[in-house]
Design brief:
The complex is a heterodimer.
Chain A (H helix, E strand, L loop, with lengths): L6 H22 L2 E5 L2 E5 L1 H11 L14 H24 L5 H6 L1 H10 L2 H13 L5 H6 L5 H10 L5 H30 L5 H6 L6 H14 L4 H38 L8
Chain B lengths: L1 H10 L15 H23 L3 H24 L6 H11 L8 H8 L4 H15 L2 H39 L2
Helix pairs in contact in B: 2-3, 2-6, 3-4, 3-5
The chains are: A mainly alpha, B mainly alpha.
């Protein structure tokens, strides 16, 4: 490890590397793959994330020569900074569409409760099919992004089974969430059952990269509805910032706990 | 098992759990980092859409100012809202028809492709993953991967079904 870069040079290398990744990914551009059900969409953000992982010092040892631990840490701070112009751009799509957003108001607000669908789908799979223990509570009560993870940390501690479940879904979501959210909405749209506005307003689940992937995929298959797709997705994402933690705290987590106790009465906590 | 959960807790040390504590952030330092992010965003937009950075610059400048104001609000307003929520609200406000300058702002940001602006964040995201995050994902095993996919499908489809239902009822 001779010639270990200082913090400043490490930072410089980081930004240059990101710039290089970004240029390559934007040159490749959006790619479409038609399959029977619909179209699978590949977005530059997917390549960017995948390339970032491939060049991550924890995976690709040669990168450690250029990227110090501090540079990796800076990279973590840069995610929240770099997503801000994107979020701002997203917000600017709402203003011009504000009357259409208000028109869709009830659906927009109530779909936040639809996020409880995770319990409906994932809880039975985890508890009955995969025979998971209390990890299932932390894993399935929400999409386990940062605020949801913080709630679990606060309530059970991260060194509990619930904490392990939540962290597992968090880490997996970080690794594959962008891919799932880029590929799923265009396929669901291909079914031809749902209003594209419903597909758009469900994109706001509280993670910037999932939001980008979801809307990017939808806009690629329904380009003429771009303005309304962006506006509804942005509006629902803001609603999730505001309501997500509370829905989790007062509805989703108690409900998941209750279901778990019903499903496994013998394990009921005596504490 | 006890051992295992202990190490899991240690692994959790560098997860972004405290990311929501924005009361202590240094707005000045962040404005510098944001400048770098915006510059890379302009280049992403250039390569991705062919729009020259000079044409897109006014729009990006507006977004930059909105972000700085949002960061300042998250830092100084007495009740807590994450900076991204403030940024969104400011961006919405300055583009509502009738607000002075709204039409100009909308016209300028139109030169920026929303997806190109997200590309730098994802590149940083891939590079920022720590050995612990890979370790947690590996340790959690295939069951968690299946559950995580079900969680994402359930969260999305639950919203889609409810939204679709109420959109139909509203017609």
């Amino acid at each position: 490890m001779t010639g270990k870069p200082g913090a400043a040079t490490g930072g410089l290398y980081l930004h240059i590397l990101v710039l290089a990744i970004v240029i390559v990914c934007e040159l490749i551009g959006i790619q479409r793959l038609s399959i029977g059900l619909g179209t699978v969409i590949f977005l530059p953000i997917l390549y960017a994330f995948a390339l970032g992982i491939l060049l991550n010092p924890a995976i690709f040892k040669a990168s450690a020569k250029f990227l110090s631990k501090d540079a990796v840490k800076l990279s973590g701070a840069m995610i929240t900074v770099a997503i801000m112009p994107f979020i701002a751009k997203f917000g600017t799509t709402v203003g011009p569409q504000i009357s259409k957003i208000i028109e869709a108001g009830p659906a927009l607000v109530l779909q936040e409760l639809g996020n409880l669908g995770t319990i409906l789908v994932a809880f039975p799979v985890a508890v009955f099919l995969l025979k998971m223990g209390r990890e299932a509570v932390g894993a399935t009560y929400s999409i386990d992004r940062e605020p949801n993870l913080a709630l679990i940390a606060d309530k059970y501690g991260l060194n509990s089974p619930e904490g392990a479940g939540a962290m597992g879904v968090y880490a997996t979501g970080t690794l594959i969430g962008t891919f799932v959210f880029a590929i799923m909405p265009p396929l669901v749209h291909g079914l031809g059952i749902f209003d594209v506005r419903a597909l758009a307003m469900s994109c706001g689940v509280g993670s910037g990269s999932m939001l980008a992937a979801c809307t990017g995929g939808l806009v690629a298959v329904v380009p003429d509805q771009k303005d309304i797709i962006l506006a509804l997705a942005a509006a629902s994402n803001i609603l999730t910032y505001a309501t997500g933690l509370y829905v989790g705290m007062f509805v989703a987590l108690p409900l998941t706990e209750w279901l778990y106790n019903k499903a496994r009465p013998s394990e009921r906590k005596t504490a | 098992m006890a051992n295992q959960t202990n190490t899991t807790a240690n692994l959790a040390d560098d997860l972004p759990l405290n990311a929501e504590d924005e009361r202590k952030i240094d707005v000045v330092k962040h404005s510098g980092l944001l400048l770098i992010a915006c510059a890379i965003g302009l280049i992403a937009n250039w390569v991705g859409t062919g729009t020259s950075p000079l044409v897109a610059l006014p729009g990006m400048a507006v977004l930059y100012v909105a972000c700085i104001i949002g960061l300042g609000f998250a830092r100084f307003v007495p009740f807590y809202l994450p900076s991204v929520a403030w940024v969104s609200l400011i961006a919405i406000l300055i583009t509502i028809p009738g607000v002075p300058g709204a039409a100009w702002v909308s016209e300028q940001v139109e030169h920026l492709n929303f997806l190109a602006l997200a590309t730098p964040a994802l590149a940083y995201g891939g590079l920022a993953l720590t050995a612990s995050e890979f370790a947690i994902a590996r340790r959690s095993g295939w069951k968690i991967v299946i559950v995580a996919i079900c969680v994402m499908i359930g969260t999305y489809m639950g919203s889609v079904v409810v939204a679709d239902l109420f959109l139909r009822l509203g017609q």
